[in-house]
Structures are given as structure tokens and as C-alpha cells.
Design goal:
By secondary structure, the protein is α/β, with parallel strands linked by helices. It is 39% helix and 22% strand. The strands form 3 sheets. Strands 6-7-8-3-9-10 form a 6-stranded mixed sheet, with helices on both faces. It has a 4-stranded antiparallel sheet with strand order 2-1-4-5, sandwiched between helices. A 3-stranded mixed sheet has the order 11-12-13. Helix 6 packs across helix 7. The radius of gyration is 23 Å and the shape is globular.
Length: 349
């Protein structure tokens, strides 16, 4: 399967002799040594990620891990030191200024952490901006902007100014603006991290609801593992500018490959996050104590079973049986794997 966005062996080194430093990093020089001996900062190291069309790729890590640096490479707000960035098979690095502007206007939209609304423009005018930049007529701008403002729950607020809205409402304007651009790809850089927890949950639910219909290719940056596990189809975890682990979020939770990842997932509410499909087994019986949906959370199944560990459920998806789940297996899945020797690993707590 050809990726919608493909990042191949990407490096970013900040400093005047950045290209000279790439080989040193490839030969094994780490971030602190590069800074101490050469005065250069290693931002990204050998990043390769395939982002599939219609999926949400979440890139997460602590502050300084390189996640925001990475997302800004996709539309070349930051120029890489080495590597390739392909969008629909086209090498972004070979685009001239006119083609790069077209990429930013028509193929990629961006939702920022700090909303980035123009304070002197109304909600409607802010949402119209992408189409205004593209040179579309006023009627089309207004029609499309009103449509997406309505979809994000802001009908009736079109004539308000950003300062008259709550933080959550301002971010809804940011999402409506990105949707008005009608791009295949949406870049979301810590889009919900400035919001209160309850509003943040509402915004996550809104994004997932819209994604079911629109099937955008979304690149979402976060430092919050709960948010990452909720949103991601594909999860990429960074540390010090390098990928520590990437893959399907449920698989990473059950199979952390590094002490750093083990620390991340150790305190997660596994019952709330894990899905039945992730721990089901092949069918080896004819009778069951009930049916459960493959995407149901373990927390919901525990409530359904009333905590009875002697039950075995038939796992269903789209009306068909795809496996079985023994409650004893569920109990085992709730216990995190014993941590490896984490000596030298930075704790994310």
C-alpha cells in the first residue's frame, strides 16, 4: 500500500554546519555529544514513517522529543537536513515556491495549539480565510465556512469575535477553518493541549466523529498518551529526536519494546483503553456466555460480566464471529508486563 505521506530517513540538525554533522550522527554520535563537541543540536534522527490515507497518525513524546519539529517538516515550515518527504508520491523537497504554496493551500491544512485566529476578524471571516487565500468568490467562501461552523457546533456564532468565545469554541473555529480548506491532509500540532480536560475530551470526540465521515489523513501531535491511544490508528513515539517505537496503539500497549515505552504505559488505565479485539483468541468452543463487540473496551466487558472470571464471550464484528474472549485472559491483560531494566531511561512521569 502506497502511503499518503511517507517520511524516509529524515534528519534535522540545527547549526551552521548541519549537513557536515549528519554523518557523525549516523556513525553513532548522540545528542549531548553533538552539542558539547560541535555546538549543533540534533532535532530529528533517522525518522521513517508511512502515514496511510484516511488514518490518524499520532506522534507523541515529551517536550524536546522532536514531535513539533517533525510535523513542521511536512509542509516545509522547517527544512530538513537530510532525507525525503513524499506526499502522494511527490517529493516535497523538490517543490519550487509556487508549488510549495499550492501544497500548503490545497493539500494540507493546519490546526495550531494556540488557535491562531485573527482577533480583528469574526468567526465567519476566520473560517473563510483558506478559501479567501485560494481566491474563491465571496459566496463560496461564506457557504463553505458556514457549513463547517455548523458541523463543529458554532452555528449562530458567525458574527462573534474570537475574544468573545471560550477556548474550546475558539479551537472549534480553528478546526472549521481547516475543514473549510477542503484538504486531504490535516496537521494538528498539540491542538487540544491548551484546553480544560472536559473540553479536551469533547474535542477528541468531535474529531473522531468527523473522521468517521470525512476520512482525512490526519497527523496529530500530543504529549498525552491517553489522547494518543484514543485517537491513533498509527502511533509514533519519539525520544530525543528518534523513534523509539511505532505501530498500532493496542499492540504497543501490550508489547512495549523499550524501558522508555514501558514507563509510558505502566500507569495507563488498561481496562479503559484496551479493546476486546486486542486480546481475543481463536474460537475453540460452540457455546458462549454472551456476545461482545470487538471494539468494546475491557472496562465495559467487566461491567457486563459482573466481574465473573469464569465466563467466555463470543467476539462479534459486523454481525460475524471473529474470535472468543475468556475472562481469565482479560484479567491477565490488565496487569502490565514486568518492566525491563530501565537504567538510563528517562522517566516520563
Amino acid at each position: 500500500m502506497t502511503a499518503k505521506v511517507a517520511i524516509k530517513e529524515l534528519y534535522k540538525i540545527f547549526g551552521q554546519r548541519d549537513k557536515e554533522m549528519v554523518q557523525l550522527v549516523k556513525d553513532g554520535m548522540d545528542k549531548p555529544t553533538l552539542l558539547d563537541q560541535h555546538g549543533h543540536v540534533l532535532g530529528l534522527q533517522d525518522i521513517s514513517v508511512d502515514m496511510q490515507a484516511g488514518e490518524i497518525t499520532v506522534i507523541m513524546g515529551l517536550s524536546g522529543s522532536g514531535k513539533s519539529t517533525l510535523i513542521r517538516h511536512l509542509n516545509r515550515l522547517i527544512e530538513p537536513t537530510a532525507g525525503e518527504i513524499l506526499v502522494d508520491g511527490q517529493d516535497v523537497m523538490k517543490l519550487g515556491q509556487a508549488d510549495l504554496r499550492a501544497l500548503r493551500q490545497k493539500q494540507m491544512s493546519m490546526v495550531f495549539q494556540k488557535f491562531a485566529l485573527l482577533p480583528h476578524r469574526t468567526v465567519l471571516q476566520n473560517a473563510e480565510m483558506p478559501l479567501s487565500v485560494q481566491g474563491l468568490d465571496a459566496d463560496t467562501q461564506e457557504r463553505d465556512a458556514r457549513k463547517w461552523l455548523d458541523r463543529v457546533g458554532l452555528a449562530g456564532f458567525e458574527d462573534r469575535f474570537p475574544a468573545q468565545l471560550s477556548g474550546g469554541m475558539q479551537q472549534r473555529v480553528g478546526i472549521a477553518r481547516a475543514l473549510t480548506a477542503n484538504t486531504d491532509i490535516m496537521l494538528m500540532d498539540e491542538a487540544f493541549s491548551a484546553l480544560d480536560p472536559l473540553i479536551r475530551t469533547d474535542m477528541q470526540d468531535l474529531l473522531l466523529e468527523l473522521q468517521k465521515e470525512l476520512h482525512k489523513t490526519i497527523v496529530f501531535i500530543t504529549h498525552d498518551l491517553d489522547e494518543a491511544l484514543k485517537l491513533a490508528d498509527h502511533l509514533v513515539i519519539l525520544k530525543d529526536g528518534a523513534i523509539v517505537q511505532q505501530g498500532e496503539p493496542q499492540h504497543i500497549l501490550l508489547n512495549p519494546n523499550d524501558p522508555y515505552i514501558e514507563d509510558f504505559v505502566s500507569d495507563i488505565n488498561r481496562a479503559r483503553v484496551l479493546r476486546v479485539r486486542s486480546i481475543m483468541e481463536p474460537v475453540d468452543r460452540d457455546s458462549f456466555d454472551g456476545d461482545v463487540d470487538a471494539d468494546s473496551s475491557l472496562e465495559r466487558l467487566i461491567a457486563q460480566s459482573d466481574g465473573d472470571t469464569g465466563l467466555v464471550y463470543r467476539v462479534m464484528q459486523d454481525g460475524a464471529q471473529i474470535g472468543q474472549l475468556n475472562m481469565k485472559q482479560l484479567v491477565k491483560a490488565l496487569v502490565p508486563r514486568a518492566r525491563s531494566d530501565a537504567k538510563g531511561a528517562s522517566s516520563p512521569k
